[in-house]
Automatic annotation (TrEMBL):
Record bears the keyword NAD: yes
Protein name from the UniProt record: UDP-glucose 4-epimerase
Cofactor dependency: NAD(+)
Record field: catalytic activity: UDP-alpha-D-glucose = UDP-alpha-D-galactose
GO BP annotations, alphabetical order: galactose catabolic process via UDP-galactose, Leloir pathway
Family as reported in the entry's similarity comment: Belongs to the NAD(P)-dependent epimerase/dehydratase family.
Species annotation: Oricola cellulosilytica
Oligomeric and partner information: Homodimer.
Domain NAD-dependent epimerase/dehydratase: 3-251
Amino acid sequence: MAVLVTGGAGYIGSHMVWALLEAGEEVVVLDRLSTGFEWAVAPEARLFVGDVGDTGLVSSLIANHAVDAIVHFAGSVVVPESIADPLLYYDNNTARSRTLIETAVRNGVRNFVFSSSAAVYGSVGAEPVQESHPCNPDSPYGMSKLMTETILQDAALAHDFRYAALRYFNVAGADPEGRTGQSTKGATHLIKVACEAALGKRGHIEVFGTDYDTPDGTCIRDYIHVTDLVKAHLHALESLRRTGESLVANCGYGRGYSVLEVLDCVKRVTGRTLDVRYAARREGDAEAVVANSDRARGILGWRPEHANLDRIVASAFSWEEDLLRRNSPKASA
Ligand code: UFG
C-alpha cells in the first residue's frame, strides 16, 4: 500500500513526504514541478512528473503502487494572484481537484486528505474561528478551496469515499532538521519575504495596510509551523483509515500576530535590520484570521510541538541561509 502525495515537491508537500516516510509509509509523489523542485523530494519517495488532472497517469499510479490514500497539496496559493487571474485558480485548484477526486473514486481510493485554507472563511475578526462559522471567502483563492471542499462533501455522500479537509492558517517555518523548507521562487508570504529581506536577498519589505481595525493597524494572522501542520495530516490519514469518517478541521494555534509583530520577531530572532516601508492595503486581505483548533486537538488528538513564533522564524531563516549557500557561486562550483 502506498500514499500518493500530489505537490510533494513543493513547500508543505515535501515536508509531508519526509513525515510519511518516517511513519513507515510507502510514498509516491506526483508533481508537475511548476513551483516545486525535484531535489526537495526525499530520495526514498518515487517522484513522477505530471499533472493531477491527467486521469490516465493517476490511474496507473494508483494501480501500480496499490495507493489507498491521496494527500492532495498541488495547487496555487497566492491570494493576490487569484484576484488577478481567477480562472487559473478555478482551473488549478477546483477543476483539477475535481478530476483527481473522480479518478480516486473510480479507482477505489477511499481516503483523501485535502489542503484547504483559512481563506475559505474570509474576514472573521480576532476571535478564533470554528469550522461551523459561515464561509465567505474574500478571494477566488479562498473560493476555489471552498468549492473543492463542497465537491469532496458530495462525493463522500455518494460514494465509498471519505476525506479530511484541513483548513491551514498561515503556514511558515522549515523542517527543524534542515532537510527541506520553503523554496518557492518569487514567494509572497510574510515570514518568507521578511527572512529574505533580513538576509539582503531583497532590499526592503512592505507592510500592506496600516489602517486596519486592529491594535497596531496591521493584519493579524495565526502562524503555524509546517512541522506541526504535517503532523495534523498524519493524524487525519490515520483517522480516515481507522474510522472511515470524513472531517473538516482547522490547523492553527489560536494565537494571532500582527504584521508588525512578525517583523519585530524577525529582527529580534535574526539579529538583522529590516528596511520596512508602509504601503497601501493589499486587495483580498482579511483583517484578522485566527484558528480555533479544538476539533483537530479533540478528534484527531493533534498536539502541536512548535507553537512559538520565534521558533517558526528561526527555522525559516535558517532555511533561507541554507538556500543562499546552495545558490552561491562557491556552492555550485
Ligand atoms: N504581508 C505584508 N507584506 C508582505 C507580505 C505579506 O504586509 O510582503 C501581509 C499581508 O498583507 C497579510 C499578512 O502579511 O496581512 C500575511 O500575508 P501572507 O501573504 O503571508 O499570507 P495570506 O494571509 O495572504 O495567505 C495565507 C495563505 C493562505 C491562507 C491564509 C490564511 O497563503 O493559504 O494565509 O490566513 F488561507
